Amino acid sequence: MIGKLNHVAIAVPDLERAADTYRNAFGADVSDPVEMPEHGVSVIFIQLPNTKIELMSPLGDSSPIAEFLERNPAGGIHHICLETDDIGAASDRARAFGRILGNGEPKTGAHGKPVVFLHPKDFHGTLIEFEEA
Ligand code: CO
Questions:
Q1: Are 55 and 15 in contact (CB under 8 A)?
Q2: Ligand 1 centroid vs 118 CA: distance in angstroms?
Q3: How far is residue 14's CA from residue 36's CA, in Å, rounded to a whole number?
Q4: I need a labelling partner for 112 at 20 to 30 A (CA). Which of 24, 34, 81, 87 fits?
Q5: pTM for this structure?
Q6: Residue 132 CA, ligand 1 centroid: distance in Å
Q7: What residue ranges of the chain have pLDDT lower than 50?
């Protein structure tokens, strides 16, 4: 039902500084920043051979990651994203085990594909994103 690890998302207080670290300390392939107002974040993508890392920083006044950064001021792993070939079926199956955030309907994610997020308290302390592959 679930497929590849699409990305690991890391919330950071300073996107450019984090991008510099990945670019210069790790020699990573780092994208330009992308603003995603509908998600309240700015994002930088780091392409790895087998998956991606997304660095995210808050955008706007009511960013969903602002509270996370208050609790983790240095930044930290925010969520993991797993691919699924059928987000409706994957959501229905997961819903029997816990909550889906928001209204439960898929939104368009950072890669233009439908995504949902599962409540971390119901899924072993990890915020899990499903993305339709
Ligand atoms: Co994500």
A1: yes
A2: 12
A3: 16
A4: 24
A5: 0.92
A6: 12
A7: none
